[in-house]
Amino acid sequence: MEPSDRVQLPAGFENVDKNILAELIADMMDRLLAHNDQIPLSPESLTRFHSRSAPSISVLQYLERIVKFTNVENACLLITLHYIDQICARIPTFTVSSLTCHRFLITSVALSSKALSDIMCQNKTYAKVGGIPMEELNMLEREFLRMIDWRLITTREVLQEYYVNLVRTHSKGKYIIVGAQSSSSVSSDSDMDYESSRPASPSSSLTAVGTNVHNQDWAPHELSSILINTTTLSPEPLHPPTVEQNMAFQAFQQSSGMG
């Protein structure tokens, strides 16, 4: 597609239409799910985020529903990608797939809104929008916080890099940012709190988000995500599956006809 035929987007992620941002995120996540859904499920990889079957609603439809009924801010949508990178670097067995994506998204939006926004919904609203019981969302929040080590904030520069790369790697290439800002050109003055470590330079593609967990040679000193330096993180040690995970995995196999 010629640059002249593309839809021009604002330079800063704060000003882009929420539905377009949802489309960009869904486009990236669809590619991620297509890759991760090929990974065989193992007992130790089961988490509270796993559904017995993939929801019938698409990622884009789910994000559009969240945007419509929760009035989520752009930063809270974008930071989901940062959370994926952080959690996948810390917990090598976790996989964002069709079985985990929807629960992960609604939990991410609920927590990021509480951490970054002045106005947010109650959990009963997020649960209703997400299509899960409120008690389950409460448990997912606690598990999410454990997995990310309570690190719910990042810099504006990091979010801006995610936005630029979402546009750059969009599968249909129909969007363009004129005069796009990157971390080297964006002012450091921001309403968001800063982490002490600077992000590493991003790669040219977003397809690496959340995929480092599938590399059997993964090591904590490898830079395997697009915006984070994994040397600043403390990966959790690998443990054999618990009794609960083995039982849940057996039940999952039986319900899905895999056994």
From TrEMBL:
A Pfam family reported for this protein in Swiss-Prot or TrEMBL: Cyclin
Gene3D superfamilies tied to this protein: Cyclin-like (1.10.472.10)
InterPro entries (UniProt xref): Cyclin-like_sf, Cyclin_PHO80-like
Residue spans crossing the bilayer: none
Region Disordered, annotated ranges: 184-208
PANTHER family: PHO85 CYCLIN PHO80, PTHR15615
Protein name: Cyclin-domain-containing protein
Organism: Somion occarium
